[in-house]
Amino acid sequence: MASSGARRGGEEEVRASHILIKHEGSRRRASWRDPEGRVIAATTRDAAAARLRALRADILEGRARFADVAAAHSDCSSAKRGGDLGRFGRGQMQKPFEEATFALKVGEISDIVYTDSGVHIILRTG
C-alpha cells in the first residue's frame, strides 16, 4: 500500500528526537544505562520529571546541546543517535508522545510529556 507521506496536509509524518527518563512506574524498568533497573526502580515519577526539567533548562539556556544531553542522559536506545527517532506517522508512538510531537513546530522543544515508558522532552526536527 502506497503512503502519501508528508505530502497530504504536511502533517502525515514528523521527525523528532527525545530524551527519556524512566522511573519506578515505567512499563519497562531497565535501559541501556541501567540494565538491572536499580536506579530506575528507585526513581519516582516526580524525581524523573524534575531531572528532565533541569536538563531542558540547560538546553533552552544554551548551556548544553539537545543531542549531547540525550546521549548522556536518555534511557532510550536512541541516545546513541543523540535521541533521534527518525520519521514517524500517526499511530506509531504512544498517544501523548504523538500528540505532543505533532503540536510542535520544527525546532521547538516540548514541555514534559508523560507516557507509559517514562517522562520525555521532545525536539521536533522535521
Distance between termini?
24 Å
Poorly predicted runs of 5 or more residues:
1-9
Provide the structure class: alpha+beta
Mean pLDDT: 92
**Strand and helix order:** EHHHEHEE
EC number: 5.2.1.8
Protein name: Peptidyl-prolyl cis-trans isomerase
Enzyme class: isomerase
Family: Belongs to the PpiC/parvulin rotamase family.
Describe the structure.
The chain is an alpha+beta fold. It has 4 helices and 4 strands. It has helices at residues 38-41, 45-60, 66-73, 95-103; strands at 13-21, 84-89, 113-115, 118-124. It has a 4-stranded antiparallel beta sheet, sandwiched between helices. The two termini are 24 Å apart. Mean pLDDT is 92; it is low at 1-9.
Strands, helices and their partners?
Layout lengths: L12 E9 L16 H4 L3 H16 L5 H8 L10 E6 L5 H9 L9 E3 L2 E7 L2
What's the quick description here?
By secondary structure, the chain is of the alpha+beta class. 29% of the residues lie in helices and 20% in strands. The longest helix is centred in the middle third of the chain and has 16 residues, at 45-60.
Features:
disordered N terminus, Chitinase A, domain 3, 4 strands, globular, four-stranded antiparallel sheet, 29% helix, alpha+beta, single chain, 4 helices, 126 residues
